[in-house]
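Action item from last meeting closed. Structure (146 res):
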């Protein structure tokens, strides 16, 4: 599922949902932070504005990843080590991006990187643990409450 059609801006789509309401709400919030960065880059905002949005995204992302890691621990998700390792990598990559932004203020690489990350991690890898939760803990999943 592409998050953008040709020249359109990115749009949240219900197909991004993984069926766990609290997590979906957080993913939506991350998506909004990504939009803010994309708009900021498109408007050629000065460096400090872009940096502000990136810092906000990083803070929110750390919160979200911590929530997810706690959830995976509680439900004893068998693949949680690998999943948590990919979270650690994204935080590292975000720190690198922040450094790059200081040297090369256009921020163009930010947009592509996050879109790619969102598709790969949120829409693919988070979906794997959501399938496990739906099967083992249906009460936590949207399938039971819908
Ligand atoms: Fe996530
Ligand atoms: Fe995740």
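Sequence:
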């Amino acid at each position: 599922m592409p998050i953008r059609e040709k020249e359109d801006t990115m749009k949240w789509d219900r197909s991004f949902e993984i069926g766990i309401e609290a997590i979906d709400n957080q993913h939506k919030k991350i998506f909004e932070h990504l939009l803010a960065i994309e708009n900021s880059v498109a408007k050629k905002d000065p460096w400090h504005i872009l940096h502000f949005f990136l810092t906000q995204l990083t803070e929110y992302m750390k919160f979200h990843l911590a929530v997810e890691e706690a959830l995976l621990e509680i439900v004893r998700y068998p693949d949680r080590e690998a999943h948590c390792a990919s979270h650690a990598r994204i935080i590292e990559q975000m720190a690198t991006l922040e450094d790059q932004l200081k040297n090369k203020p256009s921020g163009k690489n930010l947009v592509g990187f996050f879109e790619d990350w969102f598709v790969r991690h949120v829409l693919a890898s988070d979906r794997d643990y959501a399938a496990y939760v739906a099967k083992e803990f249906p009460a936590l999943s949207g399938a039971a409450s819908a």
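Note appended to the action item: The chain is about 75% helix and 0% strand.
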